[in-house]
Amino acid sequence: MKKKILTISREFGSGGRTIAKEVADKLGFAYYDNELVTKIAEESGFDPEYVLKSGEEVKFSNPFLYNISINTRMVHSQLSAENQLFVTQFNIIKRLAEEESCVIVGRCSDYILRNRDDCLNVHIHAPMDFRADRIVRVYGENDISPKKRINDKDKKRKTYYEYYTDRTWGDSKNFHICLDSSVIGIENSIDFLINAMQIDY
Amino acid sequence: MKKKILTISREFGSGGRTIAKEVADKLGFAYYDNELVTKIAEESGFDPEYVLKSGEEVKFSNPFLYNISINTRMVHSQLSAENQLFVTQFNIIKRLAEEESCVIVGRCSDYILRNRDDCLNVHIHAPMDFRADRIVRVYGENDISPKKRINDKDKKRKTYYEYYTDRTWGDSKNFHICLDSSVIGIENSIDFLINAMQIDY
């Protein structure tokens, strides 16, 4: 197979990461999820803990600033560290896509690589109940209810994605394939995507 | 295969209808697109021409009323014929899904059948350039530019869908599978959906 890139955007708890990892393993592609954290930390000088926590999160210490920033794309000094991190991430993702066949999870990679013709952009989603059950099975219980954990995480990913891309999170237009993993199933989604990667697009 | 339903929502020119027809033929399923028009005309007493033209269109003679209606879901007397048509369509689609395995194109069928567990909801989309080329090949040239024809048709479908469902047109959440036919290809999309219909969901 010629060099190809697969990006996977996913709702929290949908199994998107599991699907991405399996597809990468089965195709023998490099896989970048938390692996990106190390690279970004090395190149940016940020602490890996900070990169992990902020890599898909825009922080707004003041809700008023949140709205201003979202609505006007105002670059506020409070955002400079996040913006710096995004630029480093942006450059690393672009370089990885140049170098080798790989699967990249999240971090606006569909947007960053939107002009490449060797890149398949995929979004994995599922209804709340399916995801709530799944995160308890996969990550265990904690003090916060599964639905609140999902809502918090989705909100962060949505805000991050929409802030940096000016696109609507979950809009099918931005992806070549969107799958509801609760109906299609994790294993079938893996098979689907492996087949899709064989297409001569 | 046990009884199953496939609904196909599609952007104009994306090839969604071609995909739907082929999947129905290959699976031996009943196919409802313009076939619905005859049934609706018979049951509603409306003229088939009117059903064909208004079956996916909400008409607003006054742009001010358009905004009020969209924003408040006000049922205005000017909409009564369309609403009546929608109710007939709604009942026919629900009944067809009860009766037999079938493929239904458009007409908010994903929304109407959203609570069935034997129904796979699919959305087919593609970028403007691909669709503009395709509609000229399939439907020929006319006085209106392909892009304007697409924008007009998409706008009507979006308005109709959002008016009757209170959902966002093209939001991946409302579908089990979304495919960009320009990258996946018409033939591969057909194969994908035939495989998906075999899943024991």
UniProtKB/TrEMBL annotation, chains A, B:
Keywords: Kinase, Transferase. It comes from the Bacteria. SUPFAM superfamilies: P-loop containing nucleoside triphosphate hydrolases. One of its GO terms (molecular function) is kinase activity. Gene3D superfamilies: P-loop containing nucleotide triphosphate hydrolases. Pfam families: Cytidylate_kin2. This is Cytidylate kinase-like family protein. It comes from Anaerosphaera multitolerans.
